[in-house]
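Researcher: Re-running this chain for the archive, since the previous output was lost when a drive failed. Same request as before.
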Amino acid sequence: MFFRPKANLSDAEKSRIEFCLQQIAECVGFERLLRPVVSRKAIFDAYELERNPQQVVALVGEHLRHDVNGIQVRVALPQAQSTGGGCCGGGSCDGPSGLAGRYEPSGRCIMLDQKLDSDPAMGIATLINGVVCDLLSQHNFAGAHLPEQVDLAVVGMGLGVIRNGISLVAKHPVYWDSTQWDVFPRPFLDGKSLAYANAIAAWSRDDAAPKWSNDLPSDLRRPMRKSLKFLLKTNDSFFQPRDKQALLAQSQSEWWKLAADSSTSNQVIALRHLKSDGKLDDRQASLLLDRLHSSNVAITLNAIAAIERLAIQQPAICSESMVHELRSLTDHRDDAVRAKAMCVLAKLGGLDEATVETAATMLETNRKHVVFAGLYALSTQDSVPDEVLPALDRCFAGVLRACDYEFIDLISAAYRRLLDDPQSHFEELFQSSPEHLPIALEALQRVAESPVPLRRGA
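Model: Regenerated structure tokens:
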């Protein structure tokens, strides 16, 4: 039996990493992401020669063909990570710690929180990140202050051998909607993403058996090699640096063409870039419907997101056949697809009685993104079947009993639209648990009568 090789992470995350690498390459030049990978020995030898941070900075600058003469290295007392402005140590890190310092773009200064001798690997990784961040800043790269994107640049430019041995992310955040690539702030690369970035680095250099991969920690080496095998076999990557082709500013006709490509990554990324100034032609409408039927969850999710975006721009784009298909997807086996389809239907005013009842059943699950989708859909309705209200009551009571207040305003918004006298309903609902009544009444006063906006992370 033939088994198709797979990457070590999901198609959604895979395509997002490839897109970011393409952004970096188009900003600083493809040749910088095709330079040979610098070995661990070469980097440590440069430091051991004089045990001077500037030696490492000079080595990295020479590798990148980047002028580092204006970069200063200073040792300062440890400081809390900033939430913006600085690079290389700024942003958010959902892990045990960040790097041992930060890059300050205003003065082109790498601030170390410790002397290099106290932890050479951590210090050298910080210096490398700082120089790469300086390169990105000098080229006005928009993501130069984001740790994850700097990490990708470090690995992509062949400088990740030290960073690979340092765990900076304990657990990668899980977002309710995998199509939301721009949810901020993102942390440093987690293990899975770091393994895939290294696989891309080897594949980009046409290196099927990179010697430097032997220095990878065992928990990165195996998934890296799995993804490298996938890439060598399929070439399924939006990022194709050897072609040195700028893709981000291509025309809409080219994006639509790419959305019909056989590559999963190309389809996902193209779907995110589709626009329309008017009604879709038959070919475009057929393509979107076909992508809704895809067996690949990432393609289906991004097709739903594309229809939402296009229909908000031009309401006439969303045909009855698209609405029908979105309704059928609310019963999809994948929870993310169900939730996404329900939210988009609600935003586009496409709910019918059957999907409203489906929304009510979503309130009974233990998956927050599915519950949110059901609540959001109900909060857009002016009336619902009689059997829906008890499900809403159970959900509200459960939220309050569990002291889980994340959805309380959304539920209250639904009650305000559905009931003429929600306060009396609350008083009756919580007569056996009066301690919850003040919280419910306060929320009722707080929410507006219009639906609570769908937040970016949902």
